[in-house]
TrEMBL record:
<feature type="active site">
    <location>
        <position position="121"/>
    </location>
</feature>
<dbReference type="GO" id="GO:0006508">
    <property type="term" value="P:proteolysis"/>
</dbReference>
<keyword id="KW-0378">Hydrolase</keyword>
<protein>
    <recommendedName>
        <fullName>Pyroglutamyl-peptidase I</fullName>
        <ecNumber>3.4.19.3</ecNumber>
    </recommendedName>
</protein>
<dbReference type="GO" id="GO:0016920">
    <property type="term" value="F:pyroglutamyl-peptidase activity"/>
</dbReference>
<keyword id="KW-0963">Cytoplasm</keyword>
<comment type="subunit">
    <text>Monomer.</text>
</comment>
<keyword id="KW-0645">Protease</keyword>
<feature type="active site">
    <location>
        <position position="57"/>
    </location>
</feature>
<dbReference type="InterPro" id="IPR016125">
    <property type="entry name" value="Peptidase_C15-like"/>
</dbReference>
<keyword id="KW-0788">Thiol protease</keyword>
<dbReference type="InterPro" id="IPR000816">
    <property type="entry name" value="Peptidase_C15"/>
</dbReference>
<dbReference type="InterPro" id="IPR036440">
    <property type="entry name" value="Peptidase_C15-like_sf"/>
</dbReference>
<dbReference type="InterPro" id="IPR033694">
    <property type="entry name" value="PGPEP1_Cys_AS"/>
</dbReference>
<comment type="function">
    <text>Removes 5-oxoproline from various penultimate amino acid residues except L-proline.</text>
</comment>
<dbReference type="InterPro" id="IPR033693">
    <property type="entry name" value="PGPEP1_Glu_AS"/>
</dbReference>
<dbReference type="GO" id="GO:0005829">
    <property type="term" value="C:cytosol"/>
</dbReference>
């Protein structure tokens, strides 16, 4: 919500949605949002009670979902997409994003993870990565006040997303440049 107040640069349309902690809703909503907006990038943000840093997730996992959601439901297959790859990496270079944002001197620690936890965050991330062929990102944040304020988290997310967009735009410039020759 703080990021919605802060916004992003003028040439970016920001759409903010709250996604319920429900497997079946995620399976319907994420593809519908991709279809509706055809975004350049989707960045999911989830709160982790275990997080003490802002954590950039590198990949989403397809199997291992055993925890019940807010509707007391769990997929019988314990997976996101039957027959899908075990793991899908984001096309965003999270190591570079982490280094660049850390160098900005914000008073927020940013780290990297390869495991978003096999619950709704990971399930949402995988679903979005599958839908977008990797054009998604997931950021875990600690609960408000533990240790960061809403304003600190909002500014960190703003910087992270702008770095992600910058990386995405430069990689596409290289791709377009190679096609012209």
């Amino acid at each position: 919500k703080e990021l919605e107040k802060l916004g992003l640069r003028d040439d970016v349309d920001l759409h903010v949605y709250e996604v319920p902690v429900e497997y079946q809703t995620v399976q319907r909503l994420i593809p519908a949002l991709w279809k509706k907006h055809s975004p350049q990038l989707v960045v999911h943000v989830g709160v982790s009670g275990m997080a003490t840093t802002v954590t950039l997730e590198k990949c989403g996992h397809n199997v291992g979902y055993k925890g019940l959601d807010n509707c007391r439901f769990c997929p019988g297959s314990q997976c996101c997409v039957e027959g899908g790859p075990e793991c899908i990496d984001s096309i965003i270079d999270m190591d570079t994003v982490c280094k660049r944002v850390s160098a900005l001197g914000l008073d927020v620690a940013v780290t990297i993870s390869k495991d978003a936890g096999r619950y709704l965050c990971d399930f949402t991330y995988y679903t979005s990565l599958y839908q977008s062929r990797g054009r998604s990102a997931f950021v875990h944040v600690p609960p408000l006040g533990k240790p960061y304020s809403a304003e600190q988290l909002g500014k960190a997310l703003q910087a992270i997303i702008e770095e992600m967009l910058e990386l995405l735009e430069h990689s596409e410039d290289k791709i377009n440049c190679q096609h012209e020759h």
